[in-house]
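Customer ticket, subject: "Can you confirm the structure for ORM1-like protein 1?"

Message body: Hello, I'm evaluating your service for our small team and ran a test protein. I'd like someone to confirm that this is what the system normally returns, since I don't have a reference to compare against.
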Amino acid sequence: MTQDLKNQQPNNPTTQKPSNPKMTGHPNKLFVGGLSANTDDDGLRQHFERFGELIDHVVIKHKVQSRSRCFGFVTYAKPEHADAAMAARPHTVDGTAVEVKRAGMYVFMHAVKGTAFETPDQGKARLLTHWEQLDYGVQFTSSRKFFTISPIILYFLASFYTKYDTTHFIINTASLLSVLIPKLPQLHGVRIFGINKY
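Agent reply: Thanks for trying us out. I re-ran your input and got the following:
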């Protein structure tokens, strides 16, 4: 299949290209941010269908609580419809000012599916990244992750109790602490301890 895609060449040199050459996403798809928590799929559709035919519209929701995450996407049938919606900015949906921009694909990190410490009872957790598991809001298994590393910025209060010293103030403000939270299968709780890295 990959070889077939490589062999395909555009037959028409005048084929319309996305209006933004730097955009790497779908030219017909728009991101809508800052939605009201009360806006649903129908409310999103009613506002944006005035600019052209929609082939998809969705308000993104939390997977467990089914609450709106206050952003969504609309996909138009033609690029010019998306251009019309962009030209009509700013938009107000259900009385709330929203941010509308082209939906692009940006890779922030590469996450490996599954967990580092697999056990037979993990089930479908093996198919998810650690961040996808956290997004569900539930722990599929007690041994989903052996530990989680969370960087926390510490702002020390020493300067309030000692004579002001610029050097020590800057060093203390930038100190980072790694909090390791081991999650052992046989334990129902966690044990928290820290290691000062700087």
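A couple of notes from the result: Residues 1-24, 106-116, 139-161, 174-198 have pLDDT under 50 and may be disordered. The longest strand covers residues 68-76. Feel free to reply with more questions.
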